[in-house]
């Protein structure tokens, strides 16, 4: 244990609060038979209750020091498989096929990669049924934000199309070693049976959303010039005032804007 100090370069803040770990697992809803994947298990604070509730866990861990420790501290609790690797490069569709069903991901994500990981999870489609994830509280608020609020942005829109989100509870810095300098929050993200609104070209939709929020103070007629040098006509055909800003558009309006551009590009 003495050698298992957190590594700052890979953003390690080990969850150490047993009660918090149990609460995360209980609110995740994992049960026997679920295909549970844990990202960055660290010292195993979440892994142990996950095994107790689900019986089987596949953990993806980048730190070469930790698999042996994890197997030792979870001995007799269930079936644990630890795969060394980068969660940002993992193919979760392949994992779902291998494990026999859509995945339930439960994780205390490294904060410096949390948004990138979430977008990677989104790209896996229905291979992931539900995620219960720990983020910096500010990021969790952005994911769940509604139009017109300060927190509303790219993550709010891209997640909102395909996921239902619910912030479950906040977690203080004292629950970790070393304590981060920010509050954390646990959020549950459940895949919608159908997207909130039709999206014909997800990649184009993502580019439109990123462009709209790329410079938040700009009105759409200026912000969207990175996609179209003369976006006013395109905005008007989509029924959107070119003088609006991205944070005022609903997810349905973003989808309509991307749909209009898609139709014009394929006409």
List keywords for this structure.
267 residues; Helicase, Ruva Protein, domain 3; 2 domains; seven-stranded mixed sheet; 9 strands; 11 helices
Provide structural commentary.
- With 267 residues, the protein is α/β, with parallel strands linked by helices.
- The protein folds into two domains: 8-191, Rossmann fold; 202-266, Orthogonal Bundle (Helicase, Ruva Protein, domain 3), CATH 1.10.8.
- It is 38% helix and 20% strand.
- The protein contains eleven helices and nine strands.
- It has helices at residues 18-28, 47-54, 66-73, 92-99, 114-122, 137-144, 154-162, 202-214, 220-223, 231-237, 251-266; strands at residues 14-15, 35-39, 56-61, 79-84, 103-108, 128-136, 163-171, 176-177, 184-191.
- Strands 4-3-2-5-6-9-7 form a seven-stranded mixed sheet, with helices on both faces.
- Strand 2 (35-39), helix 2 (47-54) and strand 3 form a beta-alpha-beta unit.
- Helix 8 crosses helix 11.
- The longest helix is centred in the C-terminal third of the chain and has 16 residues, at 251-266.
- The mean pLDDT is 93.
Mean pLDDT across residues: 93
Main sheet: strands, sense, barrel: 7 strands, mixed
Number of helices: 11
Quickly name the level 1 CATH class of the largest domain.
Alpha Beta
Question: CATH superfamily membership of the largest domain, which one?
Answer: Vaccinia Virus protein VP39
Helix content: 25-40%
What CATH architecture of the largest domain do you see?
3-Layer(aba) Sandwich
């Amino acid at each position: 244990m003495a050698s298992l100090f957190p590594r700052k370069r890979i953003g390690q803040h080990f969850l150490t609060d047993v009660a918090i770990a149990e609460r995360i697992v209980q609110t995740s809803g994992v049960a026997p038979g679920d295909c549970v994947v844990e990202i960055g298990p660290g010292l195993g604070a979440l892994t142990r209750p996950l095994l107790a509730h689900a019986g089987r866990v596949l953990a993806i861990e980048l730190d070469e020091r930790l698999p042996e420790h994890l197997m030792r501290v979870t001995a007799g609790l269930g079936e644990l498989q630890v795969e060394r690797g980068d969660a940002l490069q993992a193919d979760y569709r392949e994992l779902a096929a291998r494990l026999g069903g859509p995945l339930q991901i439960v994780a205390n994500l490294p904060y410096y990669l949390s948004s990138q990981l979430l977008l990677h999870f989104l790209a896996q489609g229905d291979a992931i049924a539900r995620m219960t994830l720990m983020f910096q509280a500010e990021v969790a608020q952005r994911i769940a934000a509604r139009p017109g609020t300060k927190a509303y942005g790219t993550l709010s829109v891209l997640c909102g199309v395909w996921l239902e989100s619910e912030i479950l509870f906040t977690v203080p810095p004292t629950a970790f070693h070393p304590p981060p300098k920010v509050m954390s929050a646990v959020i549950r993200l459940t895949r919608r049976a159908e997207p909130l609104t039709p999206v014909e070209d997800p990649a184009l939709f993502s580019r439109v959303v990123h462009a709209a929020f790329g410079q938040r103070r700009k009105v759409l007629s200026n912000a969207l010039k990175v996609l179209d040098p003369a976006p006013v006509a395109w905005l008007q055909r989509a029924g959107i005032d070119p003088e609006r800003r991205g944070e005022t558009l609903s997810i349905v309006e973003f989808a309509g804007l991307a749909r209009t551009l898609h139709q014009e590009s394929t006409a």
